[in-house]
Amino acid sequence: MKKPLLASAAIALLATPLAAQDDPASAVSAERLKQTVEKLVSFGTRHTLSSQTDPKRGIGAAVDWGADEFRSISNKCGGCLEVVLPETQVQGGRIPDPVRLRDVVAIQRGTERPNEVVIVQGHIDSRVSDVMNATADAPGANDDGSGTALAIEAARVLSKHRYPTTIVYALLSGEEQGLYGGQLLADYAQQQGWTVKAVLNNDIVGNSCGSDGYCDAEHVRVFSEGTRADVTDRALSAQARDGGENDSPSRNLSRFVDDIAEKSEGELAVRQIWRTDRMGRGGDQLPFLDKGYPAIRFSVAVENYDQQHQDLRTEDGVEYGDTIDKMDFPYLAKVTQLNVRTLAELAQAPMPPAPVAKAAVSTDTEISWKPVVGAHSYRLYRRRTDQPYWPSEPFDTIDVPDAVRQANEGVVVSVREPRGQRNGAAVSRTEISTTLAHIRGDDWFFGVSSCSADGACSPVASAVPGGAFAPIAQGEGDSE
To answer: Fewer beta carbons within 10 Å, N or C terminal of the chain?
Structure first.
């Protein structure tokens, strides 16, 4: 949530193509979410080391059920979901012997750019106080039955629509034992050659009151990294000189989600948390960040530590355990709606561009980027270096002529007259550039958003080292 001074930023920063059609978020059902969590709890435990073969209890039965749920959803949309179960054997500090690990992945292929992917996910496994206890009842209602139910509900409502880019719905195993399911899916995405636009990790998103009695059902926290996990020595050196530690793709994705929440007046507000995860803890967004994929974490505004990672018991009048009666399903529905709106916006918009700003020893600033597939226009933003948010209005918009998108040769086909402070724009198949006359780049951060023909705009990508929504290339002299 932005400061009040900037609360109107979402109005102009994001187009609202959903206004012309049914808002899929309106179909989200709190009752259906509850039914999904009840089913997950019925498996007794979903510990990664629990039974793989029992048809009613354990992680094997839960994963099989999750796959069947996605198949059922697919049957209702004419087979629009491809359901796959990436699998591997894992072993580690919390997995003493090799164990079978499976994720459940439902893929809704894009109609125009199927290799361009947005992912929504939650982890299906659960635990109690002893992370190695695979036999005790571990209901995992909120952690992370809530995120699992959210991903399934998102598939239910979004599968009724078609989008230019692909949406992936994922239920991950092995999170509590060491983020193994997140690693499995991140590896799978890389093996498929996906261009990952965004990963929305939902973990503990279904309660609104903490163990100290403090409640907040009006906010959801969105965590985003600052300095990129995949940063190279060269990129880090450039960032130390030119800035960018507050402009990672994940940070701009967090700003994008905040803008969407502010457009939905009266709904859930975003509290941006500008760190990768909670202090001393982690989640399944981390393996994606390690690969350079933009990823954020949604989590409740107020965690209840008595109701997570706890044996079921009552001590001194305090009830411990992650049980369904401690959840707030109207709140979970609001978090699900925000995810659905974000997924729909991202799936309609082109990839963000990868802008570069040049202003050394100059009174002008040049911004350039390569054209983006599916982009019909670009919005340019700037903010002072001590400001946290992009302004409400782009300072310029560059429309891309049809000839450029259809051209076979990389020649300049359009040079426009100066408009405002812009000293013309050169547009070609290989590069778009604009020069900002009398704008001294030292004092500003610049960003560019790409927009489709129907007005769906991407998150802003910052013109800073490491600002592109793509893994940083490993260069000579960089450490692994």
So the answer is: C
